[in-house]
Specification:
single chain, 3-stranded antiparallel beta sheet, two-stranded antiparallel sheet
């Protein structure tokens, strides 16, 4: 089927990307013939691609199996690759528009807070498709859609998309993706604290990996616009972003107040990357401005959240403020993925955080046989504050393992991953339909979910560590 359309406007017809190379009227026959003619070449190429991973004696066999199997979602995730030869943007003309669903049950394309975890697969295997997502997101930043929406969490009304912000997603296939943004209606995405931060962190990570200076230059004006929005979310002037008692990030059922380990860490990491970009692009004014804010934010982050062993969930007076969060070091994880060492977050503190997470969230949760639960109380009981605090997320467990490898904790990384994937694949039979979340003993949520592609961040960490050792 060379042509597709969406529910919101069935008169608008899109061409699939293969129409750049194959006749639309006979594409099925042409593609079949071409595929048969290339069969041997493709098989050999696949074997060569897999060989170094399969021959790595330092990686577990369960990991190798899962690494390749999780790629199912890139073809089975409602994936779209559109011929955009008529676009005014050069990248789209050449590489097309790309989109994949958040999940089989969560019908939103390119959900950005989740793509932040999943994009390591695209970056390493099909980087131009990842950049197609990035170039489209940057086109949406200044876009504004005043259509009134009713948000389910608080019953309040708001506009569909505000300017100077990253959208939650680029639309629903039953509407008009790429044009009608933010199909998500649980919360108002403009209030979320992680979306803008995640886009900026991803841009700098892309630059570090791809060494594309033109890409960085293109993104810089938009990053500066986003940073205005980001800093407006610092409500007490300490340099650090604040939450207002809402679940205002990817954990959208787990409320957070004031400074938090997750969004605060993402913010400190983002400020660090903004300073790096400003220095690379010789923007002295921005560098000096954000260097000062970074200094304040780092102090506030440590003063408000460090308890001597790990970063607390948030700095509220709630009974869960001291929860141990699997994803507490997410900002540092992205910095490590971007060539940073421990210039921003102290090595001893990161090690203490990871040791604590492994001891509590991994080993005290099903005896280390079910991944890393999102939230654990210091007394060794699961945090049941919300549905999401007591879930184990496959993608964030992979992110944790990736960071452990960056920090030289390989044995703990494999232990964490093996418990999770043995449960998923061998006990629950959920291969090729990996859910977002599991809750003990045998409860799952949202089959066929994007975030599990984060297992490719583990491969990314292994390759980066190998490259560092050679250098």
């Amino acid at each position: 089927m060379p042509h597709i359309f969406f529910g919101g406007n069935q008169n608008k017809v899109y061409k699939r990307y293969f129409t750049k190379y194959f006749n639309e009227s006979s594409s099925f026959l042409d593609i079949s013939c071409y595929s048969f003619s290339q069969r041997e070449c493709w098989i050999n190429s696949l074997l060569e691609w897999r060989r170094p991973i399969l021959s790595n004696e330092n990686a577990s066999n369960i990991y190798k199996c899962a690494l390749f199997n999780e790629l199912y979602f890139l073809s089975d995730g409602g994936t779209l690759w559109i011929n955009a030869e008529d676009s005014e943007i050069d990248h789209f003309k050449k590489y097309g528009l790309f989109a994949y669903l958040e999940g089989h049950e969560y019908r939103m394309y390119n959900t950005y807070d989740v793509h932040f975890y999943a994009n390591f697969a695209l970056l390493q295997l099909w980087p131009k498709l990842h950049l197609s997502i990035q170039y489209h997101i940057v086109e949406t930043i200044q876009f504004e859609d005043p259509e009134t929406r009713l948000f389910l969490f608080n019953g309040k009304e708001g506009s569909r998309k505000t300017s100077n912000s990253v959208p939650h997603d680029i639309g629903d296939p039953d509407d008009q993706p790429w044009y009608k943004l933010n199909a998500y209606i649980i919360h108002d995405a403009k209030d979320w604290k992680d979306l803008n931060l995640k886009f900026i962190l991803t841009v700098y990570r892309d630059y570090f990996y791809l060494k594309d200076l033109d890409y960085l230059k293109y993104m810089w004006p938009y990053i500066k616009l986003l940073m205005i929005t980001v800093q407006s979310q610092d409500h007490d002037g300490d340099g650090l972003i604040d939450s207002e008692g809402l679940p205002d990030q990817t954990y959208d059922a787990w409320s957070v107040t004031g400074a938090s380990a997750y969004c605060g860490g993402l913010h400190v990491a983002t400020l660090s990357c903004v300073c790096k970009i400003a220095k690379i692009l010789e923007d002295t004014e921005c560098f000096e401005k954000y260097e000062k804010i970074l200094s304040k934010a780092k102090k506030a982050y440590n003063d408000k959240l460090w308890n001597g062993k790990y970063y607390k969930y948030d700095c509220s007076n709630s009974d869960y403020n001291d929860s141990i969060m699997t994803d507490m070091c997410c900002g540092h994880w992205y910095l490590r993925s971007s060539g940073f060492d421990h210039e921003v977050f102290e090595k001893e503190k990161i090690k203490s955080c990871l040791e604590t997470i492994f001891e509590y969230n991994v080993m005290k949760y099903a005896n280390g046989k079910a991944g890393s639960v999102n939230g654990m109380k210091p007394n060794g009981s699961v945090d049941i504050t919300s549905m999401q605090s007591e879930e184990m997320w496959i993608g964030t467990t992979c992110a944790l393992a990736s960071l452990m490898i960056f920090e030289g904790m390989n044995e703990k990384a494999w232990k964490t991953l093996e418990g999770m994937y043995n449960l998923l694949y061998n006990k629950l039979g959920l291969a090729f339909q990996t859910p977002e979340a599991l809750m003990m003993p045998n409860v799952y949520r949202s089959l066929g979910y994007m975030r599990a592609l984060c297992i490719w961040s583990v491969q990314y960490a292994l390759e980066q560590k190998k490259e560092q050792q050679h250098n």
